[in-house]
Design goal:
By secondary structure, the chain is mostly beta strands. The chain is 0% helix and 47% strand. The protein contains no helices and twelve strands. The strands form three sheets. Strands 1, 3, 4, 7 and 8 form a five-stranded antiparallel beta sheet that branches. Strands 2-10-9-6-5 form a five-stranded mixed beta sheet, with no helix packed on it. The chain is rod-shaped and about 100 Å long.
């Protein structure tokens, strides 16, 4: 099952735009070996967008003036990266790191605060979740196969991989 995006929809008051947060990557499966050691964090980051109605607000890392916002990330069993994109319409978190050994689930809670275009303060909390996609354990050795003997009344000559000829009359062993 793949979930591409999850949207949160809320009813707005008449005459006032609703402020909504969107994460570009709300859930990620991290590849891990059979012991749970994560092999790569590629594409584990996310972009955060904040809409006031249908218009994007500006990420400025402060969120104290109208139309601006900031975000604080707190990881559980994972180390969040730092946001980039100040004074743009999105905060970009690159690939995260440091998933704790001995746990298969991690999350990052993003607390987003700011002010709408008309100056109304808001706080939105979004969660990005992570699981491990573990490789299976190596299997044991398989059973020993049967011995096969092929006999013939005719002479046979075999060429070995090194180019030498092994001539044997009447019996070939496979």
């Amino acid at each position: 099952v793949t979930i591409d995006k999850i949207y949160t929809i809320a009813k707005a008051k008449s005459g006032v735009n609703n402020v909504v947060a969107i994460l570009s990557n709300e859930t990620t499966a991290l590849p891990a070996d059979s012991t749970g050691t994560v092999a790569a964090y590629t594409n584990s980051g996310t972009d955060i967008y904040i809409y006031d109605g249908g218009t994007l607000l500006t990420y400025d890392g402060s969120g104290t003036t109208s139309g601006k916002w900031k975000v604080i990330a707190a990881g559980t069993n994972i180390t969040p990266s730092s946001p980039t994109g100040t004074n743009t319409t999105k905060a970009t978190y690159g690939d995260h790191s440091g998933v704790a050994q001995g746990t298969d689930a991690s999350s990052i809670v993003y607390t987003i605060t700011g002010k709408s275009f008309v100056g109304n303060a808001f706080t939105i909390v979004k969660t990005q979740t992570f699981t491990k996609s573990k490789a299976g354990s190596a299997g044991g050795p398989g059973p020993v196969g049967p011995t096969v003997t092929v006999t013939s009344d005719r002479a046979a000559a075999f060429t070995a991989t090194d180019g030498s000829i092994d001539a044997e009359i009447g019996r070939a062993h496979v």
